[in-house]
TrEMBL record:
<dbReference type="InterPro" id="IPR002514">
    <property type="entry name" value="Transposase_8"/>
</dbReference>
<dbReference type="Pfam" id="PF01527">
    <property type="entry name" value="HTH_Tnp_1"/>
</dbReference>
<dbReference type="InterPro" id="IPR052546">
    <property type="entry name" value="Transposase_8_domain"/>
</dbReference>
<dbReference type="InterPro" id="IPR009057">
    <property type="entry name" value="Homeodomain-like_sf"/>
</dbReference>
<protein>
    <submittedName>
        <fullName>Transposase-like protein</fullName>
    </submittedName>
</protein>
Length: 93
């Protein structure tokens, strides 16, 4: 079974730049995906997600997603604490 490689947003934007150059040369989506060593579905998803983004924008997007994940984790922990305090206040041990 093939191991999956996780690309960074900067790498994805770089590969999308390569894809644009290859398409300008007249290659098909299948040829472009083969040259980039990704599937056509992955290439399409990258184009939908990152579109015409530059490397700085991709880096900022990754930072915002990481920050959002951290905030979601903190919120989840706060909700658990709140539920525990509520149970203590009601006398349910």
């Amino acid at each position: 079974m093939k191991k999956f490689k996780k690309h960074t947003p900067e790498q994805i934007v770089g590969k999308l730049d390569q894809a644009a150059k290859l398409k300008a040369e007249g290659k098909t989506n299948a040829d472009v995906a083969r040259d980039l060593k990704v599937s056509e579905a992955t290439l399409h998803r990258w184009q939908k997600t990152y579109g015409q983004m530059d490397r700085a924008g991709a880096r900022e997007l990754k930072a915002l997603r990481d920050e959002n994940d951290r905030f979601k984790k903190l919120l989840g922990e706060a909700e658990l604490d709140k539920a525990a305090y509520k149970e203590l206040a009601e006398g349910k041990f």
